[in-house]
Amino acid sequence: MAQMIDAHEQRILIPALMQRGQDSYAGRLDAWHAMGKVSGVFQTLQAITLAAGANYEVLKKQLDWAGVKVPAWGTFRKDNGAVKGLEERQIRVKNSAGETSWLTFLASVGEGYTVIQHQAVGELLDSLVGQINGAHYETMGTLDYGKRVWAQINPNYQIRVGEDVTDVMLTYLTSHDGTTATEVYETATRQVCRNTVRIGRLNRLSNSLRLKHTKNSGKKIADWKMELAEIQDTAMTMQAKLNFLVAKRVTRESLDKIMLKLFPTKKDEDGKDLEGSTRRTNILGDILNLYEQNDNNTFPEQRGTAYSLLNSITNYTDHVRSTKGDARAESALFGSGDKLKTSALEMILAEAEGMPSMSMQYAKGVTREQMSVDVLRSN
After folding, report:
1. Taking 50 as the threshold, does the pLDDT of residue 228 lie above it?
2. What span, in angstroms and rounded, lies between the C-alpha atoms of 275 and 290?
3. Would you list the domain boundaries of the chain?
4. How much is the pTM?
5. Could you give the CA distance from residue 146 to residue 24 in angstroms, rounded to a whole number?
6. CA proximity to 175, closest of 146, 209, 202
């Protein structure tokens, strides 16, 4: 595993986000280098919700100005006590029964916006989890003061590429600011390096959750057979794709095409490289360096394969790539980093159709190291 998260982010930025209550994380294993609350064990929904600081209710209220109601609405998180890091944002209120609660403004929403409690999503998924032997909650977190909540469930499925084992996770994401509908998809996490890549959206499961949370729906989902089949089929389809990639050898031409599509060059009217070409060269250098390392050669048979190239890009995205501000971890899961990894998988799969099999050799006199150097020079 490449331990290349920069010291500034590890020691200052991520702890600052959690200290001020902007983000939170709880899980079985450490994430983003031991930040957050790490339990070392799988947890129940109730336990991990409490550990992640996601044990709050969300309300929609009409806004007012100087005590006068205005035609605007917002969402607020309601906590039963003061939350560390949110002190300056929380408003202490009492209801008619004299009960005290603390409200934190989340976002402006439309009059027709309907709040869906993230705990309700978890409770529904709990009935699914209960039908999978050995499945437990792996992680949960909140983003941007609780505007978004996400969690990962281990359904006890694995993808195998030879001896290389990848854990399949069910990831769900929901929001309280109107920006994200409830979505459930599968992600793959390699045990050797903890890199993640999105496998695919679980359309049936997402639609079931969305149906459950329509305004007047009383539907109860008692039989999850079709949803369970979708989870397993999606994982097995990904396993077939990865085993296809590990049997394909990356050539100089295919590497050049993939990198050019993922990181296109920008030129002026005269054909000269615009500002930013140095950054692009550095990105290619980082990825090719990881490609040459081949996860410290943990699986020598993967060296030079399309699968190894995919892993080098996910490794770069999760552990090396810089992002705007202090959001690498969030980007890797839900933002531009997630999109980069998904695009890389799609492009490498497409290009691999024309790659030779691993049984074929490089052209005489051309080494894998020389190929990487040539790609840098040609780009």
Report:
1. yes
2. 25
3. 21-52+116-242, 247-378
4. 0.73
5. 9
6. 146
